[in-house]
């Protein structure tokens, strides 16, 4: 379906996200001829740049992030760029934006707020006051969407005064990743898994997002956030929702979002007692990643000496429903880990009895590994007979590598999500009540940590996190997937 002509306005248009992700994503769509000929990207920033100075800034800061560069496409893309200098929080400076934007009915107007969340309310008010918040315009909110339940509610309230819920697109870029949608295809495009997708057959689920990178130059933001707010409250919980939700009646936005909301509301609440047992927070120390020496979190540039911000979190969640009661969902994320990896592991129960000449304990329970990155694919672990005489069974793998199977070029998460916004497709965006439900569940953890003086447990960079993380899952007689893999 061809896109309607649009003006996409990037608040924070000269900022890091615009340069690293948003402008390269739009360029890439332009390269695939997805953008209408007169569509524009209007970048808004405080600097008093001339158009040429802004183009120079894009050349320096955005172009290096483009994977497939083509000079002709680039030149055509640059013609779409308009730079408007204004102070986003001062309505008296919005005149130039009002002059620039096209407000015809057949032009889609999108405001992408790639700014700190403290500015959301004021920008929305200013758009309304300038007559720019038209009934068919849309607003995109970038994370962090609050830092606790109260601030998330406030954002919903403030933005909701100007835009109706169907005009608000709350981004979680993990939902734009190819494999996350493939998980929907796997669960609801096949009959095979649904009967097994429940407590009777599944023993546990592990969801890991591990990164090799440290905090880099984001200390100002990160030290006031930490892994729980930065990754768990949003990305990990969204993945959990897609794995655990009931089959929605269709792929329509509210059908999917209702199903996800149900999961968030069914998460077992932590109490001070269960919190201490079921959550581990860690902070990286110096170590080696890919053979390179890397510093401790507290020695990173601008890190407070005695920072207690967690760079790792692992927890055991439970979902109180007929489908999932008693099935642990282990979630974990960390920076400066041994590998860059995002995957979901669904482990099935062991066989009840062995008819072969080997004990049941020698049968590795089946598992399904859904890999989001670095490579995208699915792996089903089965038991198979080893060739030759006699019946010896050994673990074997059925593998679906998406790159091998489908040769079509990949789309980055931001490309897909931006296209969805421009098409008015809300399924992959969080609804306001979902956002609040996720914060509601996380809130007791935040409160507990605030009152608890103990620092996060240290772990060496280049490892899989603190030993307490292995102990957390080990208490249930289980291991993280990498711990259970046979040595090469
Ligand atoms: C962002 C976090 O939302 O996700 C970052 O703020 C993190 O801290 C990033 O590095 C990870 O995203 P991806 O797509 O690289 O796994």
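^ Assign residues to that structure.
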């Amino acid at each position: 379906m061809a896109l309607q002509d649009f003006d996409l306005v990037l608040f924070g248009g000269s900022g890091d996200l615009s340069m690293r992700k948003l402008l390269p994503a739009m360029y890439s769509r332009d390269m695939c001829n997805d953008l209408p000929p007169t569509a524009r990207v209007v970048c808004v920033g405080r600097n008093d740049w001339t158009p040429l100075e802004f183009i120079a800034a894009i050349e320096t800061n955005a172009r290096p992030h483009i994977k497939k560069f083509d000079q002709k496409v680039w030149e055509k893309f640059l013609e779409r760029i308009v730079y408007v200098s204004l102070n986003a929080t001062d309505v008296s400076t919005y005149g130039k934006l009002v002059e620039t934007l096209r407000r015809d009915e057949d032009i889609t107007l999108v405001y992408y707020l790639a700014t700190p969340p403290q500015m959301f309310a004021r920008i929305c008010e200013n758009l309304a006051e300038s007559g720019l918040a038209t009934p068919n315009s849309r607003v995109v909110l970038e994370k962090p969407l609050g830092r606790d339940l109260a601030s998330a509610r406030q954002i919903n309230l403030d933005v909701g005064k100007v835009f109706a819920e169907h005009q608000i697109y709350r981004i979680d870029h993990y939902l734009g990743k190819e494999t996350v949608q493939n998980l929907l295809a796997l669960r609801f495009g096949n009959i095979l898994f649904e009967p097994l997708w429940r407590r009777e057959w599944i023993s546990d689920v592990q969801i890991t997002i591990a990164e090799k990178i440290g905090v880099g130059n984001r200390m100002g933001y990160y030290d006031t956030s930490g892994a729980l707010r930065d990754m768990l409250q949003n990305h990990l919980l969204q993945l959990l929702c897609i794995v655990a939700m009931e089959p929605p009646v269709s792929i329509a936005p509210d059908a999917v979002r209702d199903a996800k909301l149900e999961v968030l509301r069914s998460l077992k609440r932590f109490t001070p007692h269960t919190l201490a047992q079921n959550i581990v927070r860690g902070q990286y120390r110096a170590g080696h990643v890919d053979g390179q020496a890397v510093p401790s979190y507290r020695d990173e540039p601008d890190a407070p000496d005695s920072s207690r911000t967690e760079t790792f979190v692992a927890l055991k969640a439970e979902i109180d429903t007929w489908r999932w009661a008693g099935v642990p969902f282990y979630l974990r994320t960390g920076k400066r880990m041994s590998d860059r990896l995002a995957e979901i592991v669904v482990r099935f129960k062991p066989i009840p009895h062995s008819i072969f000449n080997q004990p049941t304990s020698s049968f590795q329970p089946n598992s399904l590994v859904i890999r989001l990155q670095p490579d995208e694919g699915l792996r089903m672990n089965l038991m198979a007979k080893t060739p030759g005489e006699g019946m010896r069974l050994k673990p074997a793998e059925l593998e679906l590598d998406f790159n091998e199977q489908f040769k079509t070029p990949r789309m980055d998460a931001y490309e897909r999500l931006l296209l969805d916004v421009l098409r008015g497709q809300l399924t992959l965006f969080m609804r306001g009540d979902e956002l609040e439900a996720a914060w509601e569940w996380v809130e007791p953890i935040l409160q507990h940590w605030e009152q608890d003086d103990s620092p996060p447990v240290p772990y060496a960079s280049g490892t899989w996190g603190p030993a307490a993380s292995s102990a957390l899952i080990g208490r249930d007689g289980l291991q993280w997937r990498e711990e259970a893999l046979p040595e090469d």
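The domain at 6-142 is CATH 3.40.50.720 (Rossmann fold).
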